[in-house]
């Protein structure tokens, strides 16, 4: 059965079923609509669920109530890692998630969350909104029948929580480590046993020994998840997600059936949530880190030989996919933008903050 036929007959593809027939703009233009949004997150999960709710509330406000977005937490309609297939098949209208969960569909999706040794949050925003990142996100998504926008940003994510400290790259051999995306593939090259566990299952996996270590997001979200209760050692700086974006994707047939104003509402709602979510994570991470330290968490840093091993493995992973045309196009665009942005930021923002901190600390 093709996707259009599925949309017409699906019992849980709310928008399609409600029309009683083929998707068409005139039918949708009449009256209010509810769009079902499946997510990769448990309900209420700090930061990421806030972004879900912000997008949903934004869309309702911007459309004067014409569109209501109904979020479904992971497992309520489909599993966390099933949301992509649910939306492309028409079982749901939209998803909110981290696109690097879907590198199995295409590895280039990683660039719209994070790639190892990739862009920081400001660099990602520059590429996405100031250059051709958004257009490339659309180009990739439309191959699969979705319209995608960034809709959240965690900032730099921590290197992870460990039961025991790691002193060399050899310590990753056999380590049962939770890390999604291309960063996880890089760790596999160091000998780690990498697992992609949904956020809502991480605590349990650590508690039972199914995992030896994990990354999640940052101090605030990690504290809320209780990771400090099952791991003592925390590495605040990581290589795998220097600025992790979240995305909203709408089934393309559903998106095309919306009025131009409603389409623009989804774009603006997502962009505003992206900005607000970044501020939310940065505002909460510092205080949370202080609480973790006060509670006994041991703060660690990776040695330079570990960083070198991360780098070599990451470059190897990225190069493996550059024979794919769309991956190479996105990779080359992102790399060029990152070099240009970092060239300026290192001479301006980074130089300033270094001197600011030196001056203030000397007072």
Layout of helices and strands, plus pairs?
Layout: H1 3-9, H2 14-19, H3 25-28, E1 33-39, H4 48-62, E2 67-72, H5 83-89, E3 94-97, H6 121-130, H7 133-143, E4 146-153, E5 160-162, E6 176-178, H8 181-189, E7 193-195, H9 202-208, E8 213-214, H10 219-225, E9 233-235, E10 245-251, H11 252-257, H12 260-294, E11 298-299, H13 304-320, H14 325-345, H15 349-362
Parallel strand pairs: 1-2, 1-3, 6-7, 6-8, 9-11
Antiparallel strand pairs: 3-10, 4-10, 5-8, 5-9
Helix pairs in contact: 4-12, 6-14, 8-13, 10-12
Explain what the structure shows.
The structure is a single chain. The chain has 363 residues and is of the alpha/beta class. The protein has a domain at 3-152 and 244-282: 3-Layer(aba) Sandwich (D-Maltodextrin-Binding Protein, domain 2). Helices cover 48% and strands 13% of the residues. The chain has helices at 3-9, 14-19, 25-28, 48-62, 83-89, 121-130, 133-143, 181-189, 202-208, 219-225, 252-257, 260-294, 304-320, 325-345, 349-362; strands at residues 33-39, 67-72, 94-97, 146-153, 160-162, 176-178, 193-195, 213-214, 233-235, 245-251, 298-299. Helix 6 (121-130) crosses helix 14. It starts with a helix and ends with a helix.
């Amino acid at each position: 059965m093709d996707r259009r036929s599925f949309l017409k007959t699906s019992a849980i593809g709310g928008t399609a079923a409600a029309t009683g027939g083929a998707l068409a703009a005139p039918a949708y233009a009449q009256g209010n609509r509810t769009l079902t949004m499946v997510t990769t997150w448990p309900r209420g999960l700090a930061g990421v669920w806030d972004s879900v709710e912000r997008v949903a509330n934004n869309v309702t406000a911007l459309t004067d109530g014409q569109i209501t977005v109904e979020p479904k937490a992971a497992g309520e309609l489909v599993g966390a890692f099933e949301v992509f297939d649910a939306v492309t098949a028409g079982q749901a209208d939209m998803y909110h998630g981290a696109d690097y969960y879907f590198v199995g569909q295409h590895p280039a999706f990683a660039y719209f969350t994070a790639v190892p040794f990739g862009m920081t949050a400001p660099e990602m925003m520059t590429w996405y909104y100031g250059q051709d990142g958004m257009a490339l996100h659309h180009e990739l998504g439309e191959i699969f029948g979705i319209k995608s926008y960034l809709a959240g940003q965690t900032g730099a994510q921590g290197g992870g929580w460990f039961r025991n400290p790691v002193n060399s790259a050899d310590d990753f051999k056999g380590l049962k480590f939770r890390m999604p995306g291309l960063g996880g593939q890089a760790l596999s090259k160091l000998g780690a046993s990498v697992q992609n566990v949904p956020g809502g299952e991480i605590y349990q996996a650590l508690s039972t020994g199914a995992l030896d270590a994990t990354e999640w997001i940052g101090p605030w979200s990690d504290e809320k998840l209780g990771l400090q209760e099952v791991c003592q050692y925390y590495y605040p700086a990581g290589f795998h997600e220097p600025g992790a974006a979240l995305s909203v994707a709408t089934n393309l047939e559903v998106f095309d059936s919306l009025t131009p104003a409603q389409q623009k509402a989804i774009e603006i709602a997502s962009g505003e949530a992206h900005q607000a979510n970044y501020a939310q994570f940065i505002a909460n991470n510092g205080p949370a880190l202080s609480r973790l330290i006060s509670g006994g968490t041991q703060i660690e840093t990776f040695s330079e030989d570990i960083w070198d091993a991360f780098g070599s493995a990451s470059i190897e992973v990225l190069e493996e996919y550059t024979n794919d045309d769309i991956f190479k196009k996105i990779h080359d665009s992102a790399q060029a933008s990152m070099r240009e942005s970092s060239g300026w930021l290192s001479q301006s923002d980074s130089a300033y903050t270094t001197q600011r901190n030196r001056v203030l600390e000397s007072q």
